[in-house]
Amino acid sequence: MQKIDINPNQMSGFGNAFSSSIGKKFIMGITGLFLVLFLIVHCFINALIFFNDGGLTFNIGAHFMASNWIIRAGEIVLFVGLLAHIFQALRLTLQNQKARPVKYAVNAGEANSKWYSRSMGLLGTLLLIFLIVHLSNFWVVSRFTGIPTVDANGHEDLYAVMALTFQNIWIVILYTLAMISLCYHLLHGFASAFQTLGWNHSKYNGIIKSVGVWYSILISLLFAAMPIAVYAGLIH
Prior knowledge:
This protein is mostly helical. The protein has eight helices and no strands.
């Protein structure tokens, strides 16, 4: 049997590839695109409240998400990806601060990049605060503590929890502000992920940018419209 030698330098090189600046950005790009796909599914399910049927259709979608083993397994992958995204974002932010401890005497600002491109750390922090509140309001209730009421179809009435939560004007304001942050976060992150992963090309960059802009605006508007519509009594 042929002996296979493992070169320690190769192993360390592999580890360094992911701990380097490029490796960190690669992880950010992969996890970012995964979260982009998740937002599409999450937004579609939540948008079922616009059927305005007392939450029956929404509860069917919520029941499917809670009972499908593929979705439940995907939640684990989602949380791992989300934590990796947050962790790498923090590492990159700290790394950039250490690399430039003294700010430039002259800041070109918009000449070099958009303000939201330079504020990804702040926008991400706002989204993290929102995420904690959002998970405590809905995910923890639906997965752990349980929902005490059921709808006419016999499904747990998560819509009733949503309707009650969005009667709080401060929660509605928080969600709206968070969706504004999400929009700007996506405006930078969508195209940046493709560039980081090397999936960009001069022929398609314009398309990627346009898709990213429309995606960022529509997803954020839909998410923001839900609490506003419930609070305003437009959905019953």
